[in-house]
Amino acid sequence: MWSGQSSDCVGDPLKARVNLAAVSKSTINRRTASSDFTDTPSIQTPAINVLKETNPGGRYWIKLDGTDVKEGLQHSMKEKWDGDVDMLDGQLSKLQEEYRLRLKSVALSDYTDCAIPLEEILSDLSCDKTFLEKIFTEASRNLRSKISQENTSAETLKTLNWDVVECNTLLQQCQGFVDKFDNAEDIPALLKCLTDDLHLYFKNLYKKKRTAVIM
Asked: Rounded to whole angstroms, how far apart are CA atoms 29 and 133?
């Protein structure tokens, strides 16, 4: 019971190490792998789709867990921001206005064919690329650092790895937009085609610039 302890600890019940019978780590991993439980919404998504088909006009409230709360609070379907850290220094309002102007900059209805600010759009995308390269490097460094630590949990590694994937995806999308605008002959037609993709890109980009309140 006092194996590995110093001699002065032997006989002290407060320092005894009780051996408990338990299955091995490999057995736990094997049981987990064969279990029906997953860390993906593969069960919930079809259930929600069936519910929607059953009552298309209904309103539903879905209970989220802690991993969904931040993102869910930060951005609504009506493009309303909430759940951000606000230091009352005007930076959050400035970031919101910047986001609003980025959406407006690709709104084709605001321009005549000859007034689309292509140089401004490309300049903004260039700034995006610089920002994304920086956070991609930081995310990759953080992941490598945690991988080298033996006590890092699988959940932490998964979160950090997903951050790297998101940054890399945004970086590729940014470069893709630049290439398309550089090679386009009909800018209005291209902008019309890319509007939805650009809106989603802006949304995901500014999530990287925002700080969610810790719940």
From this structure: 37
Read off the DSSP letter of residue 15.
G
Predicted TM-score (pTM) of the model is 0.65
- Reported for 47-50, long-range contacts at CB under 8 A and 24+ positions apart, including other chains, are none
C-alpha span between 208 and 75 (Å, rounded): 13
Amino acid identity at 104 = K
- Give the type of residue at 178: V
Question: CA angle, corner 109, sides to 106 and 112, nearest 5?
Answer: 95
Give the whole-angstrom CA distance, residue 121 versus residue 194.
13
- Residue 81's DSSP bridge partners are 75
Q: What is the pLDDT of residues 114-137, one digit of tens each?
A: 577 888 999 999 999 999 999 999
Q: What is the pLDDT of residues 27-81, one digit of tens each?
A: 888 887 887 777 677 777 888 888 889 988 888 777 655 555 555 557 766 777 8
Q: By the 8 A CB rule, do 215 and 66 touch?
A: yes
* 195 Cα distance to chain centroid: 21
Residue 52 structure tokens? 């929607």
**Angle, to 10 degrees, between the axis of helix 187-209 and the axis of helix 154-183?**
150
